[in-house]
Design a protein that fits this description.
Layout (H helix, E strand, L loop, with lengths): L2 E5 L4 H12 L3 E6 L12 E4 L5 H7 L6 E4 L7 H4 L5 H21 L4 E7 L29 H20 L2 E7 L2 E2 L12 H11 L5 E5 L5 E2 L2 E2 H12 L7 E3 L5 E2 H12 L4 E5 L13 H7 L7 H17 L3
Parallel strand pairs: 1-2, 1-4, 2-3, 4-5, 5-6, 6-11, 7-10, 8-13
Antiparallel strand pairs: 9-12
Helix pairs in contact: 1-7, 4-5, 6-8, 6-10, 8-10
Length: 321
């Protein structure tokens, strides 16, 4: 039986990955500070521990695994990443986790590892035009991320690739573009735009106004978690050794995102634009390279993903099981 390790396995993407690997008959160990919030873990072994502690990493990586997925990080949506209030923790905690993980993997000769980077590492100056952002993989340098979160992701990408170069690791790196879906954080300050908007509209009455940060003309693309997992598995098992975007290339404004959710909710919603952390003006996944390297790219529409996500968030608000 093949064995897999999912670091950050109590989180949103990590718990979905555990489920996918179990469906493929892997023996799975997951590690996280907490158990999954919305459902029981399917992991065969779950270690509740802090990966900033090198001893926890050594306990978790006590053998050779066929596949290791590193999702563990200190992160959240714009309300967490772009205020500047969490910069030191974001950089320190995530970098320390990655350093500990790679050292422990090296000791156990467990060298096939996936690292989840982010589109936040792309240069800010290429994302000022909301209609024509450039997030092609080759545009990463000269580096100029718009946040300390992006800088840490860029450093950690290079860390994983350096271990591949110097120690023979089979490192795989994906730059995720705004992953969302059921069982994702939807309140508390770390939620991302689709979940926040779904929550606001689910709690609103027909013809209410909801708050939208900025003018709503900033653009993004959003990827349903199902396709994120599929792309991650394909990249992990490929021979592609360079970072790839994993995201949708269906770009929308935040105002359009609000309108899509309102239509799904069958509500007439108006927008009240307020000041708030926005990040770059435009961002969209450039999928030419992933199609070339993996002969695959996400195809499901944003509407399809929101039709799965909105009812789930509405159910959480109402307290239904």
């Amino acid at each position: 039986m093949k064995k897999a390790l999912v670091l950050g396995g109590g989180g949103f993407i990590g718990s979905h990955m555990v489920n996918r690997l179990k469906s493929e008959d892997f023996w799975v160990r997951a590690v996280d500070l907490k158990y999954p919030e919305f459902s029981e873990t399917q992991a065969d072994d779950f270690i509740q521990g802090d990966l900033r502690d090198p001893n926890v990493c050594r306990d978790a990586i006590d053998q050779k695994f066929d596949e290791i997925y590193q999702f563990a990080a200190d992160m959240g949506g714009a309300g967490f990443v772009f205020t500047g209030e969490n910069d030191a923790d974001i950089m320190h905690n995530s970098a320390l986790i990655n350093l500990n993980v790679l050292e422990a993997c090296l000791r156990r000769n467990s060298k096939r590892i996936f690292y989840s980077s982010s589109a936040c590492m792309y240069p800010e100056h290429n994302q000022m035009d909301p209609d024509n952002p450039n997030c092609e993989e080759a545009s990463a340098y000269p580096a100029n991320p718009d946040s300390e979160y992006g800088w840490e992701k860029l450093f950690s990408e290079r860390l994983f690739l350096a271990f591949a170069k110097n120690y023979g690791f089979e490192s795989r790196v994906a730059r995720y573009h705004n992953i969302f879906g059921p069982e994702g954080t939807w309140q508390g300050g770390r939620e991302k735009a689709p979940a926040a908007i779904c929550r606001k509209i689910a709690m609103a009455k027909d013809e209410d106004a909801i708050e939208v940060w900025g003018d709503g003309l900033q653009t993004r693309s959003f990827l349903i978690v199902d396709e994120c997992i599929e792309g991650t598995i394909r990249l992990m098992r490929s021979d592609c050794k360079i970072p790839l975007n994993i995201g949708s290339d269906e770009m929308v404004t935040i105002n359009q995102l609000v309108d899509m959710v309102a239509t799904i909710a069958n509500k007439k919603i108006t927008k009240r634009h307020i000041e708030g952390p926005e990040g770059v003006r435009g961002r969209n996944s450039e999928n030419t390279l992933i199609k070339k390297k993996l002969n695959w790219a996400p195809t499901n529409s944003l509407k399809w993903g929101l039709e799965k996500t909105y009812p789930w968030i509405k159910k959480q608000i109402s307290g239904e099981k």
